[in-house]
Write a structure and sequence with these properties.
The complex is a heterodimer of chains A (260) and B (263). Chain A has 260 residues and is mainly alpha-helical. Chain A contains ten helices and no strands. By secondary structure, chain B is of the alpha/beta class. The chains are: A mainly alpha (260), B alpha/beta (263).
């Protein structure tokens, strides 16, 4: 915290607000100054007006996207954690599955969406699955890495005492991989949003992605931007929750004052 | 009567990576350590000293030969041993006290008892910590301790389950000279108090001569014991002894053996 006098301004806390409002102010000014038409780049005030005008639709679709994302994300957590534990359990499993994982992660998920639509039809389900597919990878890799990098001395100490693999994992491996896991959640949640919106823009009849596509077709450019802002707000909100969770659960891993 | 630790004509071959040849870590290794003895094993780096430790604790098995501990063939992990390494490897999410108690959560019969009588065990850990000068550190996290303090805590962890055999793998190599000498005395005092058998693997000849009853010199890989030297100085030894002429001469003599072993 701030060590200066009580009356001094806490610039660190203020800084994100100043930067955010500063960006919007410059944006607004530039649009008016250069006379950019609203269908190319609408000014924040115009976007704000569109948000007000379409508040109902924005709200419903945001909520739709949010829960689609969270459902996919929840699946990614469960599956990612289990697969991560499985891969990190043994060197041979790690070696065997890692190339497959890398290969899978290299596939552009946009190419997978049509397949999902083919299987499950258009709607929210492909969106949930895309969110899941795109966000589980960082979780798996991080959990597996946390387990695979247990200090050999630690393992020796416990194994020499007759500890089973399960003991080593429960006492050392799993707590050790928690910071990796929570770190991965921050990355995964933003990826999950990308996945669900991606799928919504391709084949869905609700959600922010769908709304954006419709707005674009109707040339409602301010509304397209309003959708983007709504997504950004959701993204920041969820990220903040994940970061807070990480701080709570694995405070021991943050020894420097930087993250406090 | 056979020795407490009895390593007889042991050869251990590590499987090389595919294509390369197998590594011969130790060959025809013989070592006998009697109950209550303090022995030190010195040698050039990579001579299989750490392999020796793994053999004695049942983490590795010999390709040829036999390893017996307390009269029984070692055929799996031996819970009567405690280990400490150069790297103290403390778990950062546990307090120092809980780190010390870690072996108790694994080894029988404490494993079952520790859940119901945690307080008793915590007191045990605190007493042990106090005996190495860490009376106030129980509630602190290991990363709040200095290197020397962490190493003391690591010794406590190795000793908490009252092992009959203590294995030390260069435990003080990463410490500064003063802290190291302090810890020599800590080990010396613990040894006289608890009377465990100790095998100390080290690079530091002064350390070996100061602490051990017998110093063994190992050859370069594949490791064998080439010299066994009794240390005649009466025990317990004061730290000042390390500055005396006889001590220096003995260290020097061992040093020439190592030079040969490397050549």
């Amino acid at each position: 915290m701030d060590n200066d006098k009580a009356s001094s301004i806490d610039w660190v806390r203020l800084s994100p607000w100043i930067c955010t409002f500063g960006l919007f102010a410059i944006w607004e000014l530039s649009v008016w100054l250069f006379g950019i038409p609203y269908y190319i780049l609408p000014a924040p005030s115009q976007i704000g007006f569109a948000m007000y005008e379409f508040a109902d639709g924005l709200w419903t679709n945001s909520v739709q996207t949010l829960w689609t994302t969270l459902l996919g994300f929840a699946m990614a957590i469960v599956f990612g954690l289990l697969l991560g534990l499985f891969i990190g359990w043994d060197k041979r499993i790690y070696a065997g599955l890692y190339p497959l994982m890398i290969g899978f992660n290299s596939i552009p998920k946009i190419a997978v969406v049509p397949i999902l639509v083919l299987w499950f039809g258009a709607g929210w389900l492909p969106a949930v699955l895309t969110a899941f597919l795109i966000s589980f990878f960082p979780i798996v890799v991080n959990v597996a890495t946390g387990l695979a990098t247990i200090e050999p001395e630690m393992e020796d100490v416990l194994r020499a005492l007759g500890a089973k693999k399960l003991d080593v994992m429960v006492k050392v491996g799993i707590p050790r991989s928690l910071p990796y896991f929570f770190g991965a959640l921050k990355v995964a949640i933003t990826l999950a949003f990308i996945g669900s919106v991606l799928s919504e823009t391709i084949a869905a009849n609700s959600g922010i992605g769908h709304m954006m596509l419709t707005a674009q077709a109707n040339f409602e450019v301010p509304l397209v931007f309003a959708c983007l802002i709504a997504l950004a707000v959701e993204g920041i909100g969820m990220y903040a929750i994940m970061a807070g969770l990480e701080q709570r659960m694995t405070g021991w891993a943050h020894r420097s004052g930087f993250n406090r | 009567m056979s020795a407490f630790v009895d390593i007889k004509d042991v050869t251990l071959r590590y499987k090389g990576r595919s294509g390369s040849q197998d590594t011969l870590a130790v060959e025809h290794l013989n070592l006998e350590v009697n109950q209550g003895d303090f022995v030190a094993v010195v040698g050039p780096s990579g001579c299989g000293k750490s392999t020796l430790m793994k053999l004695a604790t049942g983490l590795h098995f010999p390709s040829v030969g036999s390893v017996r501990l307390d009269g029984a063939e070692v055929d799996g992990p031996v819970s009567i041993a405690g280990m400490a390494f150069q790297n103290p490897v403390m778990l950062p999410w546990r307090t120092t006290r809980d780190n010390v108690l870690l072996p108790m959560e694994v080894v029988e019969p404490h494993r079952r008892k520790i859940r119901t009588s945690r307080a008793t065990y915590q007191q045990m850990a605190d007493e042990l910590l106090a005996s190495v000068g860490l009376g106030d550190a129980g509630d602190q996290y290991p990363w709040q301790l200095s290197g020397g303090m962490q190493q003391r805590a690591s010794l406590c962890r190795a000793l908490i389950h009252d092992p009959r055999l203590l294995l030390l793998d260069e435990p003080f190599a990463a410490l500064d000279a003063f802290t190291r000498e302090e810890l020599w005395c800590v080990i010396r005092d613990l040894y006289y108090e608890k009377e465990f058998t100790t095998i100390l693997v080290t690079h530091d000849l002064r350390e070996a001569v100061f602490l051990a009853d017998t110093v063994y010199v190992m050859s370069a890989r594949p490791g064998q014991i080439i010299v066994s030297r009794e240390i005649p100085f009466p025990k317990p030894r004061p730290i000042e002894i390390t500055y005396e002429v006889e001590f220096g001469e003995l260290t020097h003599e061992l040093r020439s053996h190592i030079a040969q072993a490397r050549g």
